[in-house]
Specification:
single chain, seven-stranded mixed beta sheet, six-stranded antiparallel beta sheet, 1 helix, 22 strands, 48% strand
């Protein structure tokens, strides 16, 4: 009698049941530890000696979305990450159908090519790229150019208008800080880019971007824990340190985690989110945040 099938059955029954994997409620990444990844805009062609070669002068570090191990957890955001362009480097021309993009310049200066227009950009600039606009980034300077780049999907049922003829670019210096209703006065906001149907942001042009904004925390300041029912959100800590609120238990107690510059968090709809800045003299903190609409399912069942 062949005992092999019985042995295999016994072995299979002894294996622990595999836990089903569900989409996480929130994600955390520490940007300095993340690897660079190749994407459609990071390789540029050039000459090396007498032969044609590809020179990687444009680099992308995915934080959430495309290039991340849990990219499928995001619903509206296609990619969120940091772009670094070497001195005298440039990125490949791209233009995404039914995707809009927002950028924030972390450091350096360069040129945004928007179709046939060349627009200078500098530190603390932010700008909006509509769907299907051919664009690229060029760095003619002797220093690296660093930016945050986020790409957001536009659902097929949303009708888009003709894109602006010129790039929509602004700088933090042009915006006054303000409080936002429902949040403490210990955190001030600069509202950068928002929906084209609204008028409160510096640039009102987006379809699925609910808000792209900067938070400025006073010592001991807080963004009170809250949630958004139909929006997902990303926080990137630019400087300072404190405690990030991410999710909560069945007892309603918020989850609190240490946070410092370089920490990034993704929150899916209905996840508790907030931030407590360090309570010490001179302890400032700044967080760059992106909030996007998530379409409701057509059939909740």
């Amino acid at each position: 009698m062949n005992k092999l099938p019985m042995v295999l059955l016994t072995f299979a029954l002894a294996l622990p049941a595999q836990e089903p994997k569900v989409a996480p409620t929130w994600l955390h990444r520490y940007v300095p530890d993340l690897p660079e990844k190749t994407t459609d805009f990071t390789f540029t062609s050039g000459m090396e000696g007498n032969r044609h070669s590809k020179i990687p002068s444009c680099h992308f570090t995915p934080i959430f979305g495309e290039g991340d191990s849990e990219a499928n957890a995001l619903q509206s955001v296609a990619r969120f990450g940091e772009v670094t362009i070497d001195a005298h480097g440039f990125c490949t021309v791209t233009g995404y159908l039914r995707q809009e993009e927002v950028y924030f310049v972390l450091g350096g200066s360069g040129i945004l090519k928007y179709e046939k227009i060349a627009q200078p950009i500098r530190k603390n600039d932010f700008f909006y790229i509509p769907t299907d606009i051919r664009n690229s980034l060029v760095n003619p300077s002797d220093q690296p150019l660093r930016l945050v780049r986020a790409t957001v999907k536009i659902p097929p049922e949303i009708r888009t208008a003709a894109p602006p003829p010129k790039p929509l670019v602004a700088n933090l210096d042009e915006i006054r800080e303000q409080t936002v209703e429902g949040h403490p006065t210990s955190v001030l906001y600069k509202l950068l880019i928002g929906p084209r149907s609204a008028r409160r942001d510096r640039i009102n042009a987006a379809y699925e971007v609910a808000d792209f904004f900067l938070m400025d925390f006073a010592p001991g300041g807080t963004n009170s824990p809250h949630h958004h029912e139909v929006e997902e959100e990303i926080y990137l800590v630019l400087d300072g340190e404190g405690k990030m609120v991410a999710g909560s238990g069945t007892d309603g107690v918020e989850g609190v985690y240490p946070a410092k510059a370089g920490d990034a968090y993704y929150f899916r709809p209905n996840c508790t989110v907030g931030f407590y800045n360090k309570d010490a003299p001179g302890a400032k903190a700044h967080i760059l945040a992106l909030r996007t609409y998530v379409p409701l399912p057509k059939n909740p069942d």
